[in-house]
Specification:
Helix content: 40-55%
Largest sheet: 7 strands, mixed
Strand order of the largest sheet: 1-7-6-5-4-2-3
Bound molecules: pyridoxal-5'-phosphate
Order of helices and strands: HHEHEHHEHEHEHHEEHHHEEHEEH
Structural class: alpha/beta
C-alpha cells in the first residue's frame, strides 16, 4: 500500500464499473491540462479540441456539452426534449425511473411513463401502444419523448436496426428520442459499430458516458438534432452542470477519444464479462438471466452460494427473491481477478 493511500490499491470489485479508478492515460491528460490559466466555463483549448473530435465521431452537425455526471446529463437532455404537458416513455428498469431519486420529477418536473420489459429493451410496440391510448386526450400525460439506455440497465444492447425502428416509430407519433449512453462505448464494442452509426439511427440527443469507462468524472451530452442546440448552454447552466474548470472534463474526453482508447477499454471490460460467462456457463446451479452483451453478467444461483461469495467479493444482489446477482467488469478488471471469482463459484457449487 502506498504510504499516502487510505485504501488497499489492489482491491478489486465486481459491484460496478463506478468502483474502478482512472485509466493512467486519462490521469496523464488531467495532469497535462494542469498549470497555467485557461478561460473558464468551456471556452478553453481542450474544449475546442473536443468539438473537433465529436464532429469527427458523430458528424459535423453534432454539438457537445460535457457535464459532471449521468443523472445531470439525463435531466438536461430530457428537459430539452419534453414540453410542460409532455411525458417520457421509458422501461421500469430505466435508470431515470429507479436510480435517480426524484430528480426527474423534482428538478425537471418530468412525468415518466414506464413499461415492463423482460430484457430492459423498449420496442416500437410499447411506444405505439402508449401513444395510441394517450395522445390527444387532455386528461392524460402526453407522450412526447422516448428515453432509451444503450447499454440497457440489464446489460443488453439494442441493435442498430432496433434503434432505427424505435426512432422511426417515435417520429411517426411526433416524439423525440434521447439515448442515455452511460455505457455507449460497451455497446459499440459489442455491436462492432462506430459512434457515427449510432448517430445515424435518428436519435435526437445522446450521452456519451466516460465515467464508467476510464474517466475520473464526466459525461458528454451530444446534440444530434440541431433544433435542440440553442437551448443547451442555458439548460446545462440552470441544471447546475456547467463546470467552471471545464478544461479538465474536456481534456479527459480528448484523451479518451484519441487513438480509440474509449473502444479499447470497453472491448476489454466486455471481454472479461464474456470470459466469465464462457467459463461458468456449463455449471449446474447457475442460470443466466440475461444474454451477456456488454460488461455486465446477470445470473441467478442458490442464495447460500451468493452469501458465501459476498464474504470475498463485492457485487450487487439484483433480485433478492430469485437469487439473481449482477457482476460488472471494469476497464481494469484482469483475467486473474475473474479467475479468483470463477474458482470460488466452482468451489461453493460442489
Ligand atoms: C444507464 C445509466 N445512466 C445514468 C447513470 C447516472 O450516472 P451518475 O451516477 O454519474 O449520475 C448511471 C449510473 O450508474 C447509469 O447506469
Amino acid at each position: 500500500m502506498s504510504s499516502k493511500a487510505l485504501h488497499n490499491r489492489s482491491h478489486f470489485a465486481f459491484a460496478s464499473d463506478n468502483y474502478s479508478g482512472v485509466h493512467p492515460t486519462i490521469m496523464d491528460a488531467i495532469i497535462t491540462a494542469n498549470g497555467g490559466h485557461q478561460t473558464a466555463y468551456g471556452d478553453d483549448i481542450y474544449s475546442r479540441k473536443l468539438d473537433e473530435l465529436i464532429a469527427e465521431c458523430f458528424g459535423q452537425q453534432a454539438t457537445n456539452y460535457p457535464v459532471f455526471n449521468g443523472t445531470g446529463a439525463n435531466i438536461i437532455a430530457l428537459s430539452a426534449l419534453t414540453p410542460r404537458h409532455g411525458a417520457v416513455i421509458c422501461t421500469t428498469n430505466a435508470h431515470i425511473y429507479n436510480d435517480e431519486s426524484n430528480a426527474p420529477a423534482y428538478v425537471a418536473g418530468l412525468r415518466l411513463l414506464p413499461v415492463k420489459t423482460a430484457d430492459g429493451k423498449l420496442t416500437p410496440a410499447h411506444i405505439k401502444s402508449i401513444c395510441q391510448s394517450n395522445q390527444g386526450n387532455p386528461h392524460a400525460p402526453q407522450p412526447t419523448t422516448v428515453y432509451l439506455s444503450q447499454v440497457t440497465e440489464l446489460g443488453t444492447c439494442y441493435t442498430l436496426d432496433e434503434l432505427i425502428a424505435i426512432t422511426t416509430t417515435a417520429k411517426s407519433f411526433g416524439l423525440y428520442t434521447y439515448l442515455d449512453g452511460a455505457r455507449l462505448a460497451n455497446a459499440c464494442a459489442y455491436l462492432g459499430c462506430n459512434l457515427s452509426d449510432i448517430a445515424a439511427t435518428g436519435i435526437d440527443i445522446l450521452t456519451l458516458g466516460g465515467t464508467k469507462n476510464g474517466l475520473m468524472m464526466g459525461e458528454c451530452l451530444v446534440v444530434l438534432n440541431p433544433a435542440f442546440d440553442g437551448i443547451m448552454p442555458y439548460l446545462r447552466k440552470n441544471h447546475l452542470q456547467l463546470a467552471s474548470k471545464h478544461r479538465f472534463i474536456s481534456a479527459q474526453f480528448v484523451a479518451w477519444l484519441t487513438d480509440g482508447l474509449w473502444l479499447t477499454l470497453a472491448r476489454h471490460s466486455n471481454q472479461m464479462a464474456q470470459y466469465l460467462y464462457q467459463k461458468i456457463k456449463q455449471l449446474d446451479g447457475i442460470k443466466f438471466t440475461q444474454p451477456v452483451q456488454s460488461n455486465a453478467v446477470f445470473l441467478s444461483l442458490p442464495k447460500v452460494i451468493s452469501q458465501k461469495l459476498h464474504q470475498e467479493f463485492s457485487f450487487y444482489d439484483w433480485n433478492a427473491q430469485t437469487g439473481e446477482i449482477r457482476l460488472v467488469m471494469s476497464f481494469d478488471t484482469t483475467a486473474e481477478q475473474v479467475d479468483t471469482l470463477i474458482d470460488a463459484i466452482k468451489e461453493y457449487l460442489h
